[in-house]
Amino acid sequence: MPSANSAPASTDSISQATRLPDLDQRCWQQLAQSASSDKSSDAGFRNLTVATCTSSGADARVVVLRHVDVAHKYVWFHTDARSEKVLQLEAFPQATLLFWDEKQQIQLRLVVETRLHTDDYLADEQWDKLHDGSIRSYLSEYRPGTEQPGPYPGFPDHVRQGELTPEDRAFGRQNFAAIECRVLCMEYLHLSKQGQTRARFQYEPVSKMSWLAP
Ligand SMILES: Cc1cc2nc3c(=O)[nH]c(=O)nc-3n(C[C@H](O)[C@H](O)[C@H](O)COP(=O)(O)O)c2cc1C
Residue 200 is part of a domain; what is its CATH number? Predict the structure, then answer.
């Protein structure tokens, strides 16, 4: 018999897991696969909604899942260091990350503690893996959300075509933030005509797994 934590896990059938440790493991495998794969069939959790607290209430927006550390239970996304969400996370580091995999009919809700990385080696490491297409997102001359006289694509005219220059990359790097999200709790919900299934995996401050009424 394999031990609870070493049970074989398949990533194509998360909801078939009938034991909580298997379900936990399959969810994390699917998150990791979604971050690393370009194939949409593997990427059900590629986009997520980041919900943040603000001084006057709450805010939310979609971002792309960029990196998953399964062993330590961290997920990462990237953003412009000048954006509103960065100010919000600096003031209120706890956030909720919401994922919906339409194909598998699975929602994951992650409660996280965030940490911003802008000018350290962890940010450098992730920046160095970006292609020019992604780097363009960090070339705006204006802080995200500032009013413009007309439609503005988010980068200056000279980078519309052709390769980026070292100066463009250096400017983009200044605006880049990698957001580390330490997962405190993950909640799973599977929708099915046979009945919904809900479970909670608490990682911190104490580790606990439970099935929940949906
Ligand atoms: C599919 C999709 C993916 C997105 N990915 C990102 C992303 O990875 N990082 C990011 O900062 N914004 C991303 N955005 C834009 C954000 O949703 C948001 O509009 C922007 O970051 C400004 O948010 P803020 O003003 O709350 O900081 C994405 C939007 C969509 C629709």
Answer: 2.30.110.10
